[in-house]
Design goal:
Chain lengths: 260, 274
Amino acid sequence: MSEAEDFGFSDKARTRLCLEQPSPTNPYLTETLYLAGYDLQQLVQKRSFSDTLYLLFCHQLPNAAQSELLEKLMTGLICASPRHAASRAVMSAGISKTNPEHLLPIGLLTLGGKQGGAAEVQLAYQFLQQHLNTTAELALQQNPARSRHQHPVPGFGALFGDVDPLMQKLAEYLLSLEGAGPHLRFAQQLATLMAKDGYGLLDTGLCAAVCADLALGARESVALYQLFRAPGLIALGMEQSHLPIHALPLLEDEHYVFQP
Amino acid sequence: MSSSPDNYFLWQQKRGNIVTSIGKWVGGDDVQVRQYSLLKDLFQQVSYMQLQVLNATGKLVSPELGRWLENNFMVMSYPDARIWCNQVGAFAGTLKTSPTAATVAGCLAADSRVYGGSQTSEHAMRFIQQTLLKYKAGQSIEALVAAAPVKQGKPAIIGFARPVARTDERIAPHQQMTEALGFAKGEHMQLADLIADYMQQHYGMGINIGGYTAAFMSDQGFSPEEVYRIKNLCVASGVTACYQDQLTEPEHSFLPWRCDDIDYQGQAPRMLPD
């Protein structure tokens, strides 16, 4: 690296989130940690995990309606099906005795994709934001469906060929909450219009809509989706890790067809 | 649309079956890799890099191209813990993370749109391949550079200039290697040279290894997606080195920060509302 040139790198890291008051006797130890100005000790005593989570990203505490919406979304997404690709990945790792500390990263990495994974949440978030001031009909006209097995727009599509009834029910419940906002309502309008073609709201689209209503940020919503899905991934992987390796199917040769 | 078995026919077909062209392990006998026998056609006959490209793309490349890529990998990964992905390896070392997790975490860190050699190669290949079409259609180098987004008063073209140095020390050795291995300069590389000359003359910024690799691999007939798959672990060895370097060091001892080494720019301490 050139010593002579200034490439604009800072002397110090900066943050708007964490203020660490050092110990009077050791400048490396934190005596008091403030999160967006609030003492962590007070947050521990008086606020829920989901309220504190919201604080980390919005730098302010949620009101009661926002708090409820986030809490219910987190509960609704807490465990994907054991047949979901990310669950299957973590279950395969668990049964094959992967180190326990690797199970969650394996699940989250698998869950990171642009089609049905975390990266799609950002695309869905941006799609909803861009089209919020148009009508659902116009948004769909501008984004005609491609092949049957691709999502017509990010966050919306078919699951195993049909509308996902689980996400539909969750969306309807979340819509009944006081905190539901314009993005979630618009998402539901889109889903209703698409239903005739067998498409509906996917978990990624639902997460995007709620995150947008909570102003949690498009990029942030990617990782939050992973966080919301994490508990189920851990539980499914750990459950398999306690079972013998032959407790999951391994395909026989006759069902593995090689066609070079 | 009403639900019917036709809707889930595809999944019914795939349930309990794998149909593939990539290969097959026949326990106790052999392994097929595409149309090749691993033990009879490839083992001891091709390099690991040739096999990696075969698995990533389905193409069995020449020994010379395998050699080119192996040398290219060598310079994508330095044992210097200031580089972002290597820092990840070093931090993992101080926590005695497993070597696999540390290396994978570092490689993942380098899956970045600004550095790392895998995703950046994909972007750079898209640029050079699309730009060649425009150049052939009659656009000038000046116009092509002018069409790029501008950052800090200079064109931000992926594959040209670097975040921490003006001159890429890997270009000259790569040019020598490319010639020594008998590769002719293709049309993507010729265009890259023209852009590099223009950028050097007007902005003092030359081609970097991502731009050079993109042009070379485009000339070899690879797609951006194929090169992303080939190079996805190209920073691994440097990450492992930095991980290993910190393994025996005390916890949190790699580049430690004091509380006041972080510039806090947020809300002043405030009372939590009831």
